[in-house]
Design a protein that fits this description.
The longest helix is centred in the C-terminal third of the chain and has 18 residues. With 555 residues, this protein is α+β, with helices and mostly antiparallel strands. The radius of gyration is 24 Å and the shape is globular. The chain has 19 helices and 20 strands. It folds into 3 domains: 183 residues, Periplasmic binding protein-like II (D-Maltodextrin-Binding Protein, domain 2); 119 residues, Dipeptide-binding Protein, Domain 1 (Dipeptide-binding Protein, domain 1, Alpha-Beta Complex); 232 residues, Dipeptide-binding Protein, Domain 3 (Dipeptide-binding Protein, domain 3, Roll).
Length: 555
Amino acid sequence: MIGRSIFSLLAALLLWPAAAPDARAARDELVIGMTQFPATFSPIIESMLAKSYVLAMTRRPLVTYDQSWELACMLCTELPTVENGLARRETLADGGAGMALTYTIQPGATWGDGTPVTTRDVLFGWEVGRHPLTGVANRDFYERITAIDVHDDKRFTVHVDKLFYDYPDRGSIPLLPAHLERDAFADPREYRHRTLYDADPTNPGLYYGPYRITEVVSGSHVVLEPNPTWWGDAPHFKRIVVRVIENTAALEANLLSGGIDYVAGELGFSIDQALSFERRHGDRFNILYKPGLIYEHIDLNLDNPMLEDRRVRRALLYALDRESLVAQLFGGKQPVAHSNVNPLDWVYSDEVPTYAYDPAKAAALLDEAGWTEMRDGIRHNAAGERLTLRLMTTAGNKVRELVEQVLQSQWKKVGVEITIKNEPARVFFGQTVTRREFPALAMYAWLSSPESVPRSTLHSAMIPTEENNWSGQNNPGFVNAEMDALIEKTEVELDREVRRGYWRRMQQIYAEELPVLPLYFRADPYILPPWLTGIEPTGHQVTTTLWVERWGARE
């Protein structure tokens, strides 16, 4: 095993040469290292941080949360608000309340092939997103839009069916290039397999941000170069390479050798690796730790008969010493999570059930659930079934593999057998999680925006199925009528204090029912060369790359 590891590291170093001296001296090329390769480059199919990281350099949303956690325009010219008259309440046909939101697209916005970005691309993006067979990650967002009025090529009004508290963002439809993607959408069920974002990802007409993708080598790297039709401030770097090294030890080796310049905070080192790296090499790099709205968790497949029983789910959490885990692995920089809401978010509540390490209570709950007979250290039920669960995560992620070993050991102490089967991130996220093909436990992270209502992840209508072409992100298959109702009410409640109460109850249900085992809230470490400037982490789901044109090189 040691010999193989050394060989892998050497191979990784040899396969990727450092930039030529002239290019490196000029600081006009940036090589970024990260640990996952995108499963798709489609802006609307599947949710994966690696994809978002790359695409943020090539596109701009109409509206986004900025570094101050406030909604702001990017592709639009002015944020629609009630005060400026661009947002207005309207009465729906059924007597309910909706909203009309008017946006104007940046006048200079142009796809990379010279075709102007227009309302036609807005309409096409809506058409694709709301089709029941497309298989988008969050189809509910599109279905809430009842109509779009086109005023001209750049100005349009979106009508939504509810009075959402975050209404300026509700018309922020991901645009798709109608002049290129229309043919791929001829058969909506096959669109995810025919989209040019995967069939022809270097087509310049797919992008309208400061950069466009010019080279893709699957599993290896993505090259981006400035988009000549970009309307905003000119980016500094003439070439950005996003290089994927799934093994984090090899990632560090490449950083030290000069094969890469910068490790992406969003998908790079874990806290423990960063702390160790800082002790050894902190004089050569700037290291920034950014806590944020990201939490590591384990999805439970609730279709698994062993996990249907809430007592088993609670026993699994009582059996884990999460406090010791975060102290030993992360130096206490990543706190234990008791629900899906981070204390950094104003909607956080501490009035939720908590599960301190208590193996005796875990054993008692498993006994109550019928797993009473112990054979060879593993529990069995009256039918002779063995309490065995498969745990899956992203292969090559050192910290997750360490966490898996800790969980496996602690669960074995209470008679639960854990088998481990990890997969490359592009397979794990591209199919296993998306299609709910993990038989028991799937460990990964969710990253959210501030006060992000968990419709896509917890509403029963958002369970991915073959019938809806794997749309939605309720991967555990959680069904709870009270949660559904609270999600519906929270989305349309404008009074913050009333919403706070709804959020409190949602977190309580989450902690009581445990469709997911919360592990810890993450902090992202950014490992920066001293000469790299302009990178400003947000602490929420929007990646730093959305402001890549602000990046530069210090002389």
